[in-house]
């Protein structure tokens, strides 16, 4: 899962009255290569967006006067962001007739219009998302941001870290105010969510300086970063003492208020899981499906697509069964893969290190293979990292954060090793190809490294179906590249693909067909080799992220369809490296625009 992109998607809330991207019109022969005025408009839009979000600035490695601040949370902030979107769109339409622009600028306009149209389609449902759940919310995102994103290279940046500690209470209080307003509308997550949030909150205020245990994760992080500074020891001691006071005097009381609120709301929460239970829940789910998949597929079509893909992958899995000599049924093979200890490393620190070492082996192998399949490869490095202890109990099994554009922070692949019984070694290879290379890290690093050749919103924005579709495509691409030499690893690849096909069934089942959490868990148990703990976590994720999980398979199938189309149309002229450039070098696009881009590349190749 692409974590930073997923978080960013919640900010893209800018009305169905806005048209989607217009069909491409041919540009006049004299069209400029790049319209300077349009570029300036997009640059001003980017700067205005950044001014509204100190957090986004930090992700972009911008360390200015906002470096010690948090974003504002609430309706006023949402309205300001939407107003900026709509004003920029109005300026664009008034000043830049589409026919006067080059094809590349037309593509930027089409992407921007699509982006705003998606945001507007979700605007009526802006108060129906969960503020706190096991995967979202300031309770875990704030500490994780400080540890992983807030760099400390000098005294001023250390003081900015302390400033963020002092004001984390305000950030949390704003989020709590939002949660109270939504509860008044009847918008509460299901009852089972609250123990996760409470547990994460308690973890944040456990350990020193809150009690006599080992250093809290945030305190330990701050000490480590300050310890590396070339400043006087007295200054280091002063900074550490200020951080300690901020944690004890500001952070702890805020988390205690949050725990009290979650305990109170838990009593009010119900046990239904799908968003069908909200006012116009059907309309909300339809809008989310359109937004995440960038298609017009409805919930019933999504559900049937999932059933069809489950059948296809089951048949491919039977081929693996024959290969390894298993003579039972597919369901019996699932049970073997789920329970046989040979497929799991020990649930110990040594076992966790084995998992990380195996991941690094596949990283090294794939790096050597990339030049044969990609014309453009990342300059940014990739770091493999365990999910921090304070949030590993509730976090997903794996996710990725993109590199900083200035090279100061690598791309980071997080793997959750809280319970090794949920992380079979058979899936290590495919999981790494999805989150690392040639998946998210390759795609997002290449996108970030496009530089000024595309507007900032294209360089740093995204579309879930494109990026997650690419990640799932990358898992299968590994097989084309000669990987998955162990048949059980190839089964792991199919298992992860099956996991994404099942998502189409259970996501639409929960939010459209009114399945219970237990029904969805049972469907996965009956149709896959997922470990029980992993199944529960996955279903709980789909419940709090309606529609998001459907984008993976939809996007992957489109990329594969376009590759097949290109191979059939071009024959000997087909070049896999050029195809990948045609997909990647535009940056993320909706699937209809991706199809247009590839069709144009095919036409150029034919004409050459």
Task: Offer a concise description of the structure.
With 608 residues, this protein is mainly α. 62% of the residues lie in helices and 2% in strands.
Structure description:
- This protein has 608 residues and is mainly α.
- The protein has three domains: 3-186 and 205-254, no CATH class; 284-556, no CATH class; 559-607, no CATH class.
- Helix content is 62%, strand content 2%.
- It contains 25 helices and three strands.
- It has helices at residues 3-9, 36-51, 54-59, 75-95, 103-122, 138-148, 155-184, 193-204, 217-227, 233-268, 281-293, 299-324, 330-339, 349-369, 389-392, 428-435, 440-448, 456-460, 464-480, 487-511, 517-527, 532-544, 551-570, 576-584, 591-607, and strands at 382-386, 398-401, 411-415.
- It has a three-stranded mixed sheet.
Write the layout of secondary structure elements.
Layout: H1 3-9, H2 36-51, H3 54-59, H4 75-95, H5 103-122, H6 138-148, H7 155-184, H8 193-204, H9 217-227, H10 233-268, H11 281-293, H12 299-324, H13 330-339, H14 349-369, E1 382-386, H15 389-392, E2 398-401, E3 411-415, H16 428-435, H17 440-448, H18 456-460, H19 464-480, H20 487-511, H21 517-527, H22 532-544, H23 551-570, H24 576-584, H25 591-607
Parallel strand pairs: 1-3
Antiparallel strand pairs: 2-3
Helix pairs in contact: 2-4, 4-5, 5-11, 6-7, 6-9, 7-10, 8-10, 9-10, 12-20, 14-16, 16-19, 16-20, 19-20, 19-23, 20-21, 21-22, 23-25
